[in-house]
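Extended Data, panel c. Modelled sequence:
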Amino acid sequence: MADESIPICGGISPVSDFKDVEKALNNSLSKLAGGDGPNYKLVKIYSASKQVVSGTLTRIEADLMDENGQIKRFKISIWSQPWLKNGIQVTFECDGEPAVVRSHDP
């Protein structure tokens, strides 16, 4: 059985403790809300995985609430390359809506 704390380069590792994932997602949501959006709040995380690929790619399935109080299920990708300017790229995908891609500084 693989140890979650040891990333496998290029391999996808499921995440069972969402503490760090929640922190990273809330950080991105806060930075994006202070910029050009979108303005979402985390409601619940259902699943997450990490992959080491020229940085870290974290994939999350979660419910987010928009500024109107509507809750929707999203597939979120956070690609972190903290050594680059605007090195955090966040992609929000929700069925029936166009994907939203935003970047911010670490």
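The two ends are 32 Å apart (CA to CA). This feature is highlighted in the accompanying rendering.
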